[in-house]
Structures are given as structure tokens and as C-alpha cells.
Amino acid sequence: MLRDREEVLITPLQENAQETLLLSVEDHPDWIELEQLPATFRLPAHVPAHTAYFDEERLQFPLLLRHWQAGDRIRPLGMKRTKKVSDLLTDAKTSLHEKEKARVLCSGDKLVWVIGHRISEDAKLSDETKRVLRITVKQ
Prior knowledge:
By secondary structure, this protein is mainly β. It is built from two helices and twelve strands, in the order ββββββββααββββ. The protein has one domain: 3-Layer(bba) Sandwich (Phenylalanyl-tRNA Synthetase, Chain B, domain 3), CATH 3.50.40. The longest helix is centred in the middle third of the chain and has 7 residues, at 85-91.
């Protein structure tokens, strides 16, 4: 149960609520898909919120999937400066319940994806991308 502004929300516990997971292309849970794609791959016109595409060479493995923490910062795609994850979620008008469940994907010491929201400028695809990594987190 969670009080969010003027509402009380009652939701079931999350099944995949493990605190922290290490991910690699070869080793990941079945509710996460990691697929390597050739550089000739072109982004579809519409990318679902829980799917992201990264320049695989700009990632450090294993990747770390965890719940966001106070003070976490990301450099959102298209921005020069970093932004607090809490501010990003607030700007997106995310409910308190969804904020509580929000997860991030880390590569080395950098946060590269606020899942369902924004990817980082630090791991984006570019003209120099040789291998694309598609990650989908099933809900």
C-alpha cells in the first residue's frame, strides 16, 4: 500500500524484485532479453519504453541492473549535463508507486538507462557503432 498525493494505491508485490543483478549477453534471467545486432541495423520508428539500443563497445560488462538510489545521476540522451534520476522521474510525472519500482542499468560507474524512461548519452548509437546491443526488460 502506498499513499500517492490524494490517492492510496494497493498493488501486488513485484515478482522480479531482486535488488541487484549482473547481466552479460550470455548470462541473464529469462525476463530480460539481450540481443547483439549488426551495425547495419536501423532503429525502428517506434521503440517500446522497456527496450533500449546501445553501442555495445561503449558498455562495460557485466552490466548491473538495480533499483535507483537517491543521488543517482544520468546524462540523458541529447543533454550535455547530468540530471538526477529523481528529477527525471518527477518530470515524467511518475507516480510514487512507479518511482519505488524504477530500475536503472549501470555500465561500470555510469548509469546508462533509467528503464522505461531514458537512455544515456554515454552509450548511445552513433555513426561509429560497430555492434548494437538491444536490451528488453519484460514487465
